[in-house]
Fold this sequence. Notes:
It holds the Pfam family Cys_Met_Meta_PP. It contains 13 helices and 12 strands. It is an alpha/beta fold.
Amino acid sequence: MADHVFEQSTMCVHRAGASTEGFQSFSTPVYRASTIVFPNAQSYRDRSLRFPDGYSYGLMGTPTTRSLEEQLTRLAGGVRSVLVPSGQAAVSALMLTLLSQGDHVLIPDNVYPPVKQFSQEVLQRYGVAVDIYDPMNLQSLRSSIRIGRTKLIWIEAPGSTTMEVCDTRAIVSIAKENGVLTGCDNTWATSLFCKPISLGVDVVAEALTKYVGGHSDLLLGALSFASMDLYLQVKEQLANLGVGVSPDDCSLALRGIETMSLRLAHVGSTALAFAQRLKDRPGIARVIHPALPKSPGHEFWKRDFQGSTGVFSVQLQVHDTALVDRALGRLELFAIGASWGGTRSLVAPMSLDGQRSFGTSGSTSMYLRFSVGLESPLDLWRDIELMLSAF
Length: 391
Ligand SMILES: *Cc1c(COP(=O)(O)O)cnc(C)c1O
């Protein structure tokens, strides 16, 4: 048998493979797989025993995806993580796991808008009751809890566009008193600047699309868990839904993480300097940046966060869309677009029209959301001055 020479077509399929002996590199190999090969029939028959940490099917993980999960778990201070195709999928997969017909979920008013839409368009259709709560008014949160029915309080700090930092510890304690789980979207801070699990949150979502990817060319999301029990529920749900991620994308995320602390330090200090300088400029009603003392929830940012990143908002004095468009048209370096966290600076005009249930006084205002990138701060400030000259 050993001397048997296979036909060419067989040789095409069965590669000899190069030796990895003596090969050491810093990169994590991209292991792609649908099929996982088992050493014998018995071990194939017992493959379900490999759940959750062993390898049984490519959709459930390869060494590349597990490397990224392990790194995220360590940074988040959790027990395990799962990967999904986007930040939005992280939130929706979690909610589809935890919530059943008859349950009730509480969503903050300043949540990433597609999450509000998901809860109202999908969860409600499946018989889950959804209430929007004011994250800065915990008395109202407390009274919104339906004993026995509320299963999850969602948290996002800082909130989208209006950047309020809520009192996560107090929300967690209200939740625990009532036997309710908490989950938190930590995309703005990343695990480097906030560890919600250490504040008592049960599960943390992050859009790796943003700072982990870091180059505006990747869509990926993660959930990191405080307990094995929750992790196992979500892992099984992902198998049921058939949701997995590409090892190629994970290898980009693994590369992105290596430079994340440097990128965040740079965009964090540049964004804060810009926020301070913008405070007293014409056309600007208010700068909202969690590290500025007048920003809502600044005291909770100081208590719970170890830094600030490159995204902040300004509320404009003007209500004239044409004027805002002219101002944005003067920008040469800031590009106009969403999905921040890359190397390029972005600005996005935001309106809260009809989107908020609380704090509606400012809801007719126009906002600009800045995401500072890695260009020279001198050039970027010149660009902002060009824009401001339109006001
Ligand atoms: C971008 C973002 C998401 C969604 O991430 P995608 O990967 O684009 O789906 C969720 N939450 C927050 C706070 C975000 O900024």
